[in-house]
Amino acid sequence: MTTAAIRTEGLTKHYGRHIALTDLNLEVGQGEVFGFLGPNVAGKSTTIRILLDLIRPTAGRVEVFGVEPRVGGAELRKRIGYLPGELEIEGQRGARLASTGRRHDHAAGRRGHRKAFGDTGFGVAGRGGGLSRQQSRR
What is the pLDDT, as a whole number, of residue 46? Predict the structure, then answer.
């Protein structure tokens, strides 16, 4: 029997009183194609970040390729590709900017676009840590 690519048992994550994920049991076999679909604040990003050991679960077990992410650390992450939707690197043109000359304007708190500032990049400092956009709106 082969090891599952992803396995969670009772995976739960709380941010203070906010419950982001409750009792997730999931198994994805190696070679399977699996996607996270659901409404905002459904726990998709939280689950992925736990699988990558970017955040720690409140409760439950997690294995990626048969290894707990907190034990596998950087070596495990070398085997995984992850591109967060909100990634912006100061001085670098993102995929949207490169293809359209515009960037998504998260700072305005609405869906919109703002013209890029020529070759100087868009001068937006990256966001680190904290709550996601959806969690901070609560």
Answer: 94
Give me 72's structure tokens: 């596998």
- Distance separating alpha carbons of residues 86 and 77, to the nearest angstrom: 19
Q: How far is residue 65's CA from residue 47's CA, in Å, rounded to a whole number? A: 16
Is the pTM of the predicted complex or chain greater than 0.90?
no
User: What average pLDDT is seen over the chain?
Assistant: 75
Q: Give how far the C-alpha of residue 82 lies from the chain's centroid of Cα atoms, to the nearest Å.
A: 7
Q: Which helix (H) or strand (E) is 128 found in, with range? A: none
The residues of the chain scoring below 70 in pLDDT are 1-2, 92-138
Q: Contact at 8 Å (CB) between 13 and 38?
A: no
Q: What is the CATH number of the domain that holds 45?
A: 3.40.50.300
Do 39 and 66 have their domain in common?
yes
**Which residues make beta-bridge pairs with 115?**
102
Domain that holds residue 47: 6-77
Supply 9's token pair: 């048992």
